[in-house]
Amino acid sequence: MDDFGSWSVLTTNFLIVLYLALGGAIFPVILHLAGANRWRRQVGFLSGTCTALFPIAFVLLIILLANGEMTFPWLKYANETGAHLGGWHNYRFLVAREVIGFLIVAGMSVAAIRCQYLAEAQPEQHRPARFNTLAVLMPFAYVIYGTMVAWDFEMTLQPGWHSASYGAYQFQSAFHGFLGFFAMMLYFLDRSDRLTRHFEPKIFNYMAQFILAMSIMWVYFYYTQYLVMWYGRLPNDMERYWRMMEEGYLLIGMVFLLLKFVIPFCVFLFKRNRHNPFTIMLIGFSVILGTWIERYVWISGSVASDLYHIPLSNTFDLAVTVVVIGLSWLAVAWALMNWWLIRHEA
Length: 346
Known about the structure:
Elements: H1 4-33, H2 37-48, H3 54-66, H4 68-71, H5 73-81, H6 91-121, H7 129-153, H8 166-190, H9 202-231, H10 235-246, H11 250-268, H12 277-300, H13 315-345
Helix pairs in contact: 1-2, 1-3, 1-6, 1-7, 1-8, 1-12, 1-13, 2-6, 3-6, 6-7, 7-8, 8-9, 8-12, 9-11, 11-12
């Protein structure tokens, strides 16, 4: 348990990589369902290259599940005391649902991106019906799977603590983080010598507006949970908030609030900033960094306060994070290169 703070870094990295991969698939689906197909055709497959992160996310998932007592504090307590784990906390059931759910959603995500590409590149041979079907199913899969992940890897880490809106809060926050990452990705691709002129400059303005909208929605979900528990006088549920706010996590908690809401909201209130690619890239970095810190606070802050751990403050934290970032960069770069070669040959 003393190492839970450091192990939380690994769990945090898993969730970030997982939702970048999921976001890469669900983003073009959302645009398609919203009728924004002109926008989707320009950036949809670029977004889809993030699905190359699924193998990395799966390896991290297996590591976390194989070391269950380090990932889930309640499991170590149950094993030491002989407490019965039933229902949702049955560990075999947890491992099975997480692995099966991952494989189903990852398979649907990759299939959706592939069908999107084939429907656009070879419309005579591949009609868009299959992509349309997957586009209808993907939001349901995203919500159900995202809720399960939120409960297993964050909400239930503190036994007895629950929130009716936690699933929606977590996967919406993760999608917000993906938008920040993708805004950065588009900025650097736009300045690449090999991937220029594949999307219109106004796409940056669309991304800025999308990030602004998701920032407002995120802060609504974030405070909804707190207000319900505080006004409802639910001391057992408020315990987690008090611990995170008063005993070590207040500072970094304020940091992710600043990075995910205050800065994006204040900057994007001004129209000129929503048309400046460099500014949008910086806000994107603010959002994805804030999402990483937010995930860490909820995970690490689920245990006793005397185990408080400053993230990235030791060799294990830094090594794991650098390796994950490096492998993720290589995976996305590989997918982008293959996408460019396909477009170039076409």
